[in-house]
ATP-binding cassette domain-containing protein (Microbulbifer epialgicus), 289 residues
Amino acid sequence: MLNLRKIYKTYPDGTRALKDVSLQIGTGITGLLGPNGSGKSSLMRTIATLQLPDSGDMLLDGQDVYQDPFLLRRLVGYLPQHFGVYSYISCYALLEHLAILKGLNNKVQRRRQIDQVLDLTDLTGHANRQPSHFSGGMLQRFGIAQALLGEPKILILDEPASGLDPAERTRLHQLLHEIAQTRVVLLSTHIVEDIEHLSAHTAILINGEIVAHDHTLALFRSLEGKIWQGPLSGSLPNDIQLLSQCLYYGESMARIFGEHCPAADFEAVPPSLQDSYFLYLKKYRGEVV
Ligand SMILES: Nc1ncnc2c1ncn2[C@@H]1O[C@H](COP(=O)(O)OP(=O)(O)OP(=O)(O)O)[C@@H](O)[C@H]1O
C-alpha cells in the first residue's frame, strides 16, 4: 500500500503544481485522470522520487519513503511520458545497461530478469534490434520492460497508451492487467476509455488537487438515470448541464446531466466515467448551474 499524505509541490517559477494531494493506492491499477497541466506528471515524478515535494510524506507499507529515497527507487519502475532511447544499441544491450544502472550487479540474475521482461512484453524476437527503429507500440512495450527491471513493487506509467493503434492498445491493456496482479500500478492518461477498461480505482486531479478518488464504477454509478443524449440541433432549456457534445456519424449529439429529460428527442443513456469526469470539471470551475 502506497500512502501519500498532504503532498505540495511548487516549481521555482512559482507554479503550484500539487496542492494537498492525499491518496492511498493498493495493489492493482489506479487510474489518474486530469486535463492538460493538472499535475499528473508532477505527481508521478514526485512518487518516483525524481523530484521532492515541498511538504507532505509518502509511506510504502508504512515506511517513510522520503527518509530514504534510494530505497524507493529500487522499488519503483517508472515509464515517463516522453523517453528517448540511444541509437546504435540493441534492445538487449540497452536493457542490460539500464539494469546495471538499477543496481542489478549479479550477471546471471540480471540476464534472467532481462529474458523475463522481454518475454512478458513480447519483445524476445526483437532483442537484437535497435529500439530507435521500433514502432510506437513496441517502444511503449520496451518502456514497460525497462520499468519492470529490478522487479519493482510500484509501477508509475505516464501516458503509456498515447499514440498506439487499437491492436497495440489492446495488447498493452493485457500486459498491464497481467503486471498489476501483484503490483501497485499508477496509470496516468487522458484516455478515459483506458481507465474504464483497466482501473478498478480512479483518482481525478484538477489544477493540482485530487477532487475524487473511488472505485471507478462508484464514480459514475450515481449518475444512473440522469444522463441524457440527443441531437444538439433543437432548442434546449437554459438551465441544462451540457456535459459534452460529440459527432455520431456526422450528427452533432449532446450529453446532458439532469433529473429530467431535457427535450422530446433526448433519451436516457447509461452513464460513463467520462460523464462523471466532465461533471467534476464543471463543478470545479463553478459552471454547474
Ligand atoms: N519543471 C517545471 N517548472 C515549472 N513548471 C512546471 C514544470 N513542470 C510542470 N510545470 C507546470 O506544472 C503544472 C502541472 O504540469 P504537469 O506536467 O504535471 O501536468 P500534466 O497533468 O501532466 O499535463 P499534461 O497532461 O499536459 O502532460 C503546469 O502548469 C506546468 O506548466
